[in-house]
Amino acid sequence: MSAPAAQSDSLLNALAGALGGGLSMATVYPLVTLSTRAAVETKRHPPGSHTSEEESKPPALALWKVLAREGTSLYDGLGSAVFGIAVTNAVFYGFFEETRHIILRRRGGTLRGLTTGESMLASLLAGTATTVASTPIWVVNVRQSVSAVLPCSTSDEKEKGGADGRPRKMGALQTLGHIIKEDGPLALWRGLLPSLLLVGNPVISYSVFEQLKNLLTRLRTERARGALIPGARLLTDVDFFLLGALSKLVATLITYPILVVKSRLQSGQRGALKDLPRLVREEGVGALYRGLNEKLLSSVLTNAFLFSSQARILIVLKGLRDVAASRRVRLARKA
């Protein structure tokens, strides 16, 4: 593949990733909010309280209960989340595809897919770049998501908050300005260290996905035994959905405790790292997995929708690119 074509594919992958990520986040955002809220809670709620009852319910039933009680509050921060996931996936897919092309070119243009080590290297580089670029967006989003369950922490919030002691709802730009005013610009990168450690999540997820995709493609090709129609797709949208779900399930189970630490730091809790030993001592290791059910469901569904929609959007974008290229060739010939 030529350098311009490879660059074009990287840009199309970035755009498809951004669009697919935005759609998937909008689809499952209430579950993301529930998971984030559960992760930042420092103490279990007393028996009989709303949150105590929800902790013991399946995620779908807990979601329905909170929606009935709070209405649209589970969608607080949706705009920043969709923007954040779009930026995250655009940067990640762009870096990943560019790194993949570089690795394949160094091999001499072989069509063989990336090995496990190569997939992990490409994911690691892409994930690191993505984390540094997108952390401020997620700090703003976490603050918006947990504002309904955390009390006012500053004098400014207390003056402008509601009668129940909760801070008033703020838009993304207002939240951004509030964080900078109260804690300074560097607070936008609060939780960067655990976020960098969480690069292991997409590394694991995309590596598992790539290897499962390569395996399934090889099995389908061998089964076809030369009967494959040129241009036909070996993997369906359902395949991408299931592969995306399985790869994210593995990654989330491994890295969830780090996500809890990151969410607590980004919610504005000071001393979250120092309080971890006390948290485990008082509430057990299970405290590091609080909100795991909601997170598994939201992450698995988000990743499944992401991979399936990104693959479909990429096909559409490449088709539009090819149509535009053919039109330019025809116009050039007429000229």
Task: Note the main attributes of this structure.
globular; mainly alpha; 335 residues
SSE blueprint and pairings:
Layout: H1 3-40, H2 50-55, H3 59-70, H4 78-107, H5 116-146, H6 155-160, H7 172-183, H8 192-197, H9 200-224, H10 237-266, H11 272-283, H12 292-334
Structure overview:
This protein is mainly alpha-helical and 335 residues long. Helix content is 75%, strand content 0%. It has twelve helices and no strands. It has helices at 3-40, 50-55, 59-70, 78-107, 116-146, 155-160, 172-183, 192-197, 200-224, 237-266, 272-283, 292-334. The longest helix has 43 residues, at 292-334. The chain is globular, with a radius of gyration of 22 Å. The model is unreliable at 44-52 and 157-161 (pLDDT under 50).
| Rg, Cα atoms, Å | 22 Å
Major beta-sheet overview: none
- State the distance separating the first and last CA atoms: 28 Å
Count of helical segments? 12
Helix content: over 70%
Instruction: Find the count of extended strands (DSSP E, 2+ residues).
Output: 0
Order of helices and strands: HHHHHHHHHHHH
Structural class: mainly alpha
Name the shape in a single word.
globular
Regions with pLDDT < 50 over 5+ consecutive residues? Answer: 44-52, 157-161
The portion of residues forming beta strands comes to under 5%
Mean pLDDT: 76
